[in-house]
Amino acid sequence: MVLTARGANEDFMKLVILGTAGYHPSEQRHTSCLVLPEMGLVMDAGSAMFRLPKYLQGRSLDIFLSHAHLDHVWGLTFLLDVLYLKPQDRVRVFARNDKLTAIRQHLFSPHIFPVDPPFESIPLAGRVELAQGCCLTTCELQHPGGSVGFRLQWPDRSLAYITDTTSRGASSSYVEFIRGVDLLVHECNFADGREELAELTGHSCTTPVAEVARAAAVGRLVLTHLNPLVTDDDPIGLSVARKIFANTELASDEMQIEF
């Protein structure tokens, strides 16, 4: 599926959501990984990273990690195959310094994965200037172990990615951070009615996420990081979200979004 929003004569930026599940893969979905192919920019490195080679267009790869939980980072161990299929002149992995340390010490322990993929670890702090006039900024999110959200701002468009957090609706701490973005990709692990479990695990239910989109006056909302145990076509109650924020879509693996 390809979702578009701009007029016929306007240029598009393409986002591909390679994986849309939380915690573990299912028959329908792999875990979180998003790519902007034109920029060689990846957000999170879940199990869907194996799909990355067919989308890479250049020779430079930047991977931004929201946090270091396994469903968001174990795709880094797939980099050897990714780089074999699509060689890159430069590979950088950006994350908070404590997350980078944990990944090097544990995920790439010689007892677990004995060959280090060739990437440079870059501590993520402050503003990151990227190609095409884009800058990336972060905000802290409420999640066990800590997580960050991303905002990518170009001169003529914007994108926010908010994953692994418990949304508080319009009172969420990150509403101003995402205000007015053209496209918001937001986790929605649970349907309404699972609030206690959402609070326990650091995830979100449908209604508060839709309320965030409405309060922040974003252009479009795409819901991802879905519960892998719920295999329905509509695991989170899309109609509930649309009553609050009409321009809401449910992500599917390899969905392409033009914005």
Please tell me about this protein's structure.
With 259 residues, the protein is of the alpha/beta class. It has one domain: 4-Layer Sandwich (Metallo-beta-lactamase, Chain A), CATH 3.60.15.10. Helix content is 19%, strand content 26%. It has helices at 70-73, 79-85, 97-107, 175-178, 195-201, 206-215, 238-244; strands spanning 2-3, 14-19, 33-36, 41-43, 60-64, 90-95, 120-123, 128-129, 135-141, 147-153, 158-162, 183-187, 220-224, 248-250, 255-258. It has an eight-stranded mixed β-sheet. Strands 8-9-10-11-12-13-14 form a seven-stranded mixed β-sheet, covered by helices on one side. A hairpin with a 5-residue loop joins strand 8 (128-129) and strand 9 (135-141). Helix 6 packs parallel to helix 7. The mean pLDDT is 96.
- The assigned structural class equals alpha/beta
Q: Which parts are unreliable, with pLDDT below 50 for 5 consecutive residues or more? A: none
Percent of residues in beta strands: 25-35%
Helical proportion, percent range: 10-25%
The total beta strand count reads 15
CATH H level, superfamily name: Ribonuclease Z/Hydroxyacylglutathione hydrolase-like
Residue-averaged pLDDT: 96
Shape: globular
Major sheet details: 8 strands, mixed
Number of domains: 1
**From N to C, what is the helix and strand string?**
EEEEEHHEHEEEEEHEHHEHEE
Query: At the third CATH level, what is the topology name?
Result: Metallo-beta-lactamase, Chain A
Identify the CATH class: Alpha Beta
From the alpha carbons, calculate the radius of gyration and give it in angstroms.
Answer: 17 Å
